[in-house]
Amino acid sequence: MKLILSKKIVKIAAINLALFIITFFLIIIPSSVAKQPQNNHSEFKSQIIIAQTTAQQLVEQAESLFQAGRLSDASLILQQAIRIYKKSGDNLGEAKALSNLSLVLEQLGLWKQATEAIDISLNLLGWDSANYVLKVNNPKSELLKILAQSLDMQAGQQLRQGKSSAAYETAKRAEKFWRQLGDSTGVLHSRTNQAQALRFSGFNRRAFDILESVSTELQLQRDSVLKVSALRSLGNVQQQLGNSEESQKNLQHSLKIAQRLQLPREISLTEFSLGNTTFALGNINDAIIHYQNAASSAPNPLLKVQAQINQLNLLVNNKRITEAKALINSIQSQLPNLPTNNAGIYARINFARVIIKIADKKDAASILATSVQQAKTLNDTRALSYALGNLASVYEQNKQWQEALKLTREALSL
Q: What is the pTM of this model?
């Protein structure tokens, strides 16, 4: 008996591992955004200024820790800042720090806590999430700026949960507030996020049109992390649309800026994308080098493992088995450190899909079973279907037909 997976599952399982794209622009809210309102009582005012300064310093410290990949330390520092802001009655500062904490918690795989943190942040700012309106009369620019940044962060979380439509709508709301502020950089940021959400949903042409417009406008602006991200996103979409040569040019431009600005995370992400594009151009050795560079500059375990999985896939497909086996051991030792989020789940699944070609199928099945449970915990039906389809394939290869059929039917029912 041979089990034939449906077209839906085949389509899910056929994701090209060498095009394993990291899909959303992550940025932590700068610490200089919020200002504590003035108080007439000089002594109390002095106490607030001292508290605010201390909290701002903590948030700045957390930013550095985040960029360095020291997520647990960043979380602890941000929680200290939140307590100080709360005690001094600085709602804007507290909301800002909570939004940053939300991002850090998500990267740690603490999804429920991350969602709670961003919800509390938006509530402090007066945002009515149920009706998508701001319940603040004559809001000041400081509030609107933190709100726009927080909505962009929430959009990122929604996308990484597989909720691309919600992410697109949330990023559009963020763009509205950036336009209200007259902040062109913020507008471009939100439009970049919208394009990422569209790309994740498969609307590559719409995403390309947005990113091409964003890229043109960015040429007139100074080099920044946003410019790096937008150029990389444009290159990613160009590669997916088959324009790999133009993709390579934009990605190389993105990399040069990231290197000049000394942004390890952005360097890693862009090296990763260059690996995808050079692979599409047929330059296997160059692609492997780009993935190696992405892994070596990655500030956290997830980015490192994602790059190593793509490197591993190319090594296996090109029969470089000795190198592949050494890399398998390195990746396996890092799996416990991966976050329990959408990206972490896909990393585990894609790793299992590669090692099944040359390693013990039991290892692949174990990794996929863990991915199934994590996807269920996150209620991520897309990742769950992908994990179940691949686990069914493992059982099929072992001629465990009944188990394979059961898993396939469960995947198809989602």
A: 0.71
